[in-house]
Structures are given as structure tokens and as C-alpha cells.
């Protein structure tokens, strides 16, 4: 059965998209993949998902063609997770959520959690999808991510707490 069969009760692309990626845990797993995480443990640490929750989201993302598993160890058998082209095509949605969240879900004094610098001209693009300096439209591949000290500390604290368990 194709994905179209599963969602054939509507032709609405928003509803169909929500069927694939419409929950907090899936969005956070995708965020981690875009940030370069490929291993289960790191995704679990940074999303704070239970192992069962993360497993179910990764299986769904794989079944729906956004993620592929690749073995990195045979004994024991372990996998890394990598975005497919379909998965990378979802990135503008995450980028838009980031921009909206920076504007509406934070105090102004907190600053940006991640700064994106346009590799071509070296300027920070803020939350824009067009570089304010040179006017080029930018995609994720065009940007260097620089995590703020505050966000980096938050991520390291999660990692440290996980290792102490």
C-alpha cells in the first residue's frame, strides 16, 4: 500500500504532511539529523525521547522515505540514520519553525540559539532565507551553523546527565 492509499481520505497536502511528520518527537528527531546527529544515542540524548519513542519515530521516518539506516558496526549490529533527499526537502519547514520560534517563543534577550552564516559571503543571515548582505537565496547547504554558547551548554548538559545515568 502506498502512502497515498493511507491518506486518501483527503487531498490536502498539509493533512498528508502531518500524517508523516506531525508530532513533536518526529520534528525533534529531524532537527537532530539536520544538526548532524546520525546515531541513536545522541538523538535520544538531545530529544529526551524514550528509546521506544525514538525507535518508533525513526522506523516511521524510514518507512516514509525520509531517513535511511546504514550499518556502522556488525558486532553488535548498529545503525546510523541519514536523511534521504525527501528528508532534506523537509528542511525549509524546520527552518521556518526556527524563525517563528525565535520571534514568538523566546524572550528578546535570549538571542538566537543558532546563527547561520552564509558560506559564500561570510555574513549572518539571521532567520532569513535570503542573505541580507548579498541578496542570495540560501539553503541549508549554503549555511554554516554556529550554535550559541547557551544552546551548546544546554546540549552538553543533556549529554552529561545521560552519561551519569
From TrEMBL:
The keyword Transcription regulation appears for this protein: yes
A GO MF term: DNA binding
Transmembrane segments: none
Domain HTH hxlR-type: 12-109
UniProtKB keywords: DNA-binding, Transcription, Transcription regulation
InterPro entries cross-referenced by the UniProt entry: HTH_HxlR (IPR002577), WH-like_DNA-bd_sf (IPR036388), WH_DNA-bd_sf (IPR036390)
SUPFAM superfamilies: Winged helix' DNA-binding domain
Protein name: Transcriptional regulator
Organism this protein belongs to: Metapseudomonas lalkuanensis
Higher taxonomy: Bacteria, Pseudomonadati, Pseudomonadota, Gammaproteobacteria, Pseudomonadales
Amino acid at each position: 500500500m502506498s502512502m497515498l492509499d493511507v491518506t486518501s481520505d483527503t487531498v490536502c497536502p498539509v493533512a498528508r504532511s502531518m500524517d508523516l511528520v506531525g508530532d513533536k518527537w518526529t520534528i525533534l528527531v529531524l532537527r537532530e539529523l539536520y544538526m548532524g546527529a546520525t546515531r541513536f544515542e545522541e538523538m535520544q540524548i538531545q530529544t529526551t525521547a524514550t528509546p521506544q519513542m525514538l525507535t518508533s519515530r525513526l522506523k516511521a521516518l524510514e518507512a516514509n522515505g525520509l531517513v535511511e539506516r546504514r550499518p556502522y558496526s556488525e558486532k553488535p549490529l548498529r545503525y546510523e540514520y541519514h536523511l534521504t533527499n525527501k528528508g532534506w526537502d523537509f528542511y525549509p519547514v524546520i527552518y521556518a519553525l526556527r524563525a517563528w520560534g525565535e520571534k514568538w517563543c523566546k524572550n528578546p534577550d535570549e538571542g538566537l540559539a543558532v546563527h547561520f552564516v552564509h558560506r559564500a559571503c561570510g555574513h549572518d543571515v539571521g532567520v532569513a532565507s535570503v542573505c541580507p548582505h548579498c541578496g542570495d537565496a540560501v539553503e541549508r547547504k549554503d549555511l554554516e551553523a554556529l550554535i550559541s554558547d547557551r544552546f551548546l551548554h544546554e546540549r552538553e548538559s543533556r549529554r552529561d546527565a545521560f552519561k551519569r545515568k
